[in-house]
Records
---
Amino acid sequence: MEMPNPESIACPHCSAELEAAAIDVPQVIVCPACQQSFVLPGIDGSTELPIDQDDQREREEAEQRLVQRQTEELSGLRIRNLSVGKRAAIRARSYFLVAALGCLVAFGQCLSNVVNHVIIRQLTLWDVTYVLIGIASIWGVDFCLRRARALLREIEATSLSEPTAAPDFAPLNDGSQIVRNLEEIR
C-alpha cells in the first residue's frame, strides 16, 4: 500500500507550517507549535467529521439539557428584570410626584410674592419674574403629573399574557365529596 505524499499546510491559529498527508476523511489534528486543534480537510476538501450514532445521540441530549438550563435561567432572569423594572418605575413615579409637589410650592411662593407687591402697590421687575416662574411651575406640575400617571399605567400593566383556554377546576375539590362518601359508608 502506498503512503500519500505529505503536503504543507498552515495552522489557522498560529500560521505555523505543518506537513500532513491528505486522507479520504477529515480529521482533527493538534498543532505542535501552539497546541490548538483544527480540522484537516479530506481529499475532497470537506471539513465535516464523521459522527457515529452514539456520539450524535449524546450530543443531542447534551444540547437539550443546555437548552432546558438556558430556558430555566432565562425565566429566572426575566422575572428579575421585570421586578427590577417595576421597582424602577415605582421609584421614578415617586420622584415625579415629589417634583410636582415642589413645583406647586414654588407656584404658591411666586403667587404670594406677586399678591403682596400688588397689595402694597410696588410692582417691580421681580414681580414679572415671579409670574414667569409661576407659569413655569404650573407647567412643571402638569408635566410631572402626566409622567407619574404614565408610570402608574406601566406599573399596573401585567407582564403575563392572557391564557388561551379557561382553567379546569375539576381536579380541585373542597372536601365535601369526601365527607359525603364517609356518610354513605356509615
Note: The longest helix spans residues 53-119.
---
Amino acid sequence: MMLFFAFALTIGCDEPEQGRYDYKAPVSGSPSQDASPPDAEGDEPAAEDAAEGADAADADGPNAGDDDLDLRENWVVWPGAHLQWVSFDEGTTSITREGVDEKDAKSQTMVCNKPGAPVQGTSARIVGRWKYNIEDGVGRISARYYAGDQPVKEGSKRLSTDLSIGKAGEKDWVDVDKWIDIPEGTDNVRYCLAMKGSDGAVWSDDLRIEEWK
C-alpha cells in the first residue's frame, strides 16, 4: 500500500510546471475513516468504474512511527519494499505492478508527498490529473490528513478523502477538481497515489491545492 499553492506540489521528486487543465465543477468531500472509504459517486472516473468498499478499504498508511518506509527528499513510499514498483518521470508519479504474487497483491503500495501542504483554512480545493490502466486491482488518489508526521484519526482509524478511484479498465488523463473538508487537528495535507492488486499501473501529475476557504 504505499505512495507531493504558490505551494504547488506534485507527488514526486521534482516540481513540474503548473499544469493548465479545464477543471470540472468542484465536488465537496468530507473526510472518511480509511476502513470505510466514501462512495465514488461524484469522483472522476464515473461511478461505474469506482472501487466498491471492501476492495478499496485499507486502514493503514505511512506515519513517522513506521519502520517500513522509504523516505526521500519530498515524498515517501509505503511499504518501503514496494519502492521497486514506483517511478518518477518529469514530475509524474507512477506505480506499476506486474505479475505480483498473491500475498503482495493483497497489500497496497502508497506514495505521498512529504512535507504536506500547510493548512490555511477549513476546506481546500485540490486540482491536478491522473490516469490508470488496471487489469487486476484497484487504484486511487486521496488526500490524507496529518498533525506533524502523525495521521489524524477518528478513534483508531486514519482519516482520508478519496479524490478519485479506478477499478479494472483503462482511463487516459482525467482532471481532478474537488473540495475537501479539513478535519479538526490537521496542520498539513498530503496527496497520495495508491494501488493494490496483481497487474496494473496508475499515474498522477501536478496534484496541488488551488485555493482555501
Note: The first helix runs from residue 53 to 56.
---
Amino acid sequence: MFSDDDYEGFAFIQDVNDVNCNMNNKAGIPDSWILLDSQSTVDVFMNKKLLKNVPDAKTPLSLHCNAGVATVNKVGDLAGYGTVWYYENGIANILSLNNVKKKYRVTYDSTASGCFKVHKTDGTKRVFKPSKKGLFYSSVNNDIVLVTTIEDKINKYSVREYSNAKKACEHQ
C-alpha cells in the first residue's frame, strides 16, 4: 500500500511530457485562471506574468503526471501567497488545495454557492468557482492575486460581482 510520503512532490495534472503543451496548443484553460486543485500536491504555474522573481530552483522538481515526468527548474513568487514552481510548458496555473489550506482557511458549501472560498487573515477572500467542465478557478484578468489593497472591501468580491454592483448603482 502507498502512504502519504509516497506522493511527496507529485502533482497529478494532465500534461504532455516535454511537448510544448501550453495555451497555444489549445489546452483550453485560460492563462489568467488560477486553479484550486485537490489532486495536486505542488503549486505550479505556467504564466510567468503572474509571478515575480523567477530564479532557478536550488533543487529541481520531478513533476509526475499522466503523461510522464517533467523536470521543473524554476520557482517564482506569487504575490500574497509565496513561492510556487514555474513550468513554462505547463497547461495551467495550479494551487494545491492541500498547500493552500496550510496557509489559509478554506471553505466549501455544495448546497450554497458551490464555490471554494479562501479566507485571508485580513478578512479578504479569494473565490474559486467551478468552470463548465468542473475545474475550480479564480480569474485574475484585471486582478491582483491574493493581495490586499487599500480598497479591502472590493477584494471580498470577484471582479464580475464588483462590476455588476457598480453598474447597479449607476442605474439607480
Note: The helical segments are 97-103, 159-170.
